[in-house]
Design goal:
This protein has one domain (2-63). 39% of the residues lie in helices and 18% in strands. The protein is built from two helices and four strands. It binds zinc ion.
Length: 71
């Protein structure tokens, strides 16, 4: 039974980590030709696509200097 308890504890810890991570991973917006990601209300993000912050960073986008999204 000891193993089962440890497994359960790791699952609880993992899901707590996952939800905390999701909370700090907001949706940001990138434009087709731009190299930066933007906040929802940025004036420079015309025709942009929404994606997760972590995804935008993975793809090499930099934070916009105008709207200063989370990094
Ligand atoms: Zn911007």
């Amino acid at each position: 039974m000891r193993k089962a308890t440890q497994l359960l504890a790791s699952i609880v810890l993992l899901s707590a980590f996952a939800s905390a991570h999701a909370f700090s991973d907001p949706t940001v917006y990138v434009t087709e030709q731009g190299k930066a990601y933007h906040k929802k209300n940025c004036t420079l993000k015309h025709g942009s696509t929404g994606m997760k912050l972590s995804e935008a960073k993975k793809k090499g986008y930099k934070p916009c200097k105008v709207c200063k999204p989370a990094t």
